[in-house]
Predict the structure.
Amino acid sequence: MKIDAKSDLFRKLPSVGELLRAPELATFVAEEGPTAVADAARIVVARLREEIGAGRVNSGSIDLALQGIPQAIERQLRQELSYSLRSVINATGVILHTNLGRAPLGAAALDHIQETAGSYSNLEFDVAAGDRGKRDVHLERLFQKLLDREASGSRGVSTIVVNNNAAAVLLALNTLAEGGEVIVSRGELVEIGGSFRIPDVMSKSGAALREVGTTNRTRLSDYEAAINDRTRLLLRVHRSNFEITGFTEQPALEELVQLARKRGLPLMEDLGSGALFDLHTIGIQGEPGVLDSLRQGVDAVTYSGDKLLGGPQAGMLSGRTDLIQRMRSNSLFRALRVDKLTYAALEATLLSYVKRDYAAIPVFRMMSMLKEDIGARAEAIAGKVKTSAISVDVVDGESVIGGGAVPSAVLPTRLLALTMEGRSADEIATRLRGGDPPIIARVEEGRVLLDLRTVFPEQDDCIVTALQALAG
Ligand SMILES: *Cc1c(COP(=O)(O)O)cnc(C)c1O
């Protein structure tokens, strides 16, 4: 009986051919073409069939459901033909939010991408000589200015760029240690967000991991005792996203440098973040900079382009010219190389460093933003939300740098704290994410918190509009 009723309903469903001839859909068919409309119609009808099968559409609601088919096709088409990757407002206060794309690019980087990627470029062409060139030359002169002159005098520092820091570590380990052993402290066998794990990368590189010390204490003598004929490299990994405190010990970098020199082995450091400016100047301690490591005599360092450097996703390998030259000759380098968009964005970002125009780099601007200025913007927004349906307070809080950089460094900030009668914090956060553009907030202790440190000032009006819409 019930089955029969359902099969009657199934028979009422229009065929895709009928829908394509339906007058309500004629404009869509003309605008988007019959194939796109037929695809969308197939999905909508299949969905309706499922609803009938599950009993969610029955003889009482079938007519309404049938009438809604043209609109459902329109919605389906609109969704299919819109972008999936889109801009969001980051109100979390996490400056390097890996899920939200890490560092936003500065205006110069965007201009440079636009100018070079929309036309042909001299990516691998030496314009003066009229001959084939190399893509690295565009960045080489900037890295030389930033690192070489200041870093290590006579040794000479070179840099190559690959797809991300994970790729840089892989390339370095494969080049320097394939078939041999790499010594790493047990306290540094880290996993970084997005499943970058030192032991896994090591095994893919063809090098064997030689763990030394314990989770909390590793001494210089542990490294020394582990060195043997198969040892190719000493590796130091920045802990990035966690800290070990309490009963701990780790040799100083200079001790490791001395040991490596004495035994004729290279020492590499995976820095992770790789700041190119002095973080102390904005009150952030404990994050090693690229120059600090090179000056102390580390032979090669790897770091990301889209963390504290504030540029595009990329992985840099900077170090002794002879070692970097070997990495450049490795066929893996060709597989891991970056495209012209990345070169353009990175060149513009590095040029800002060379000009010491740090304010041109968005993550730097965000890190150096003062609590008072953030508070003033928050008060201005709160003052514009004129409705009693939503309560907007401005309270003290903390922003974090994120992205596996300086885990303990927090930046004092002022937050917008939202609550609504009869609506949970999670519901409010969901509504904010459902807006256009979506606003991503933090939920803590029953409140929704918005940190304007990571919101661009020109987006403040969007926040006002969204808060008003919430109340409405
Ligand atoms: C972030 C990080 C990585 C991974 O860098 P990606 O650029 O995301 O590939 C590797 N090592 C350390 C220490 C890091 O902090």
User: Anything to note?
Assistant: The two ends are 47 Å apart (CA to CA). The pocket of pyridoxal-5'-phosphate is lined by residues 164-166, 192, 196, 237-238, 240, 270, 272, 304, 315, 404 (CB under 6 Å).
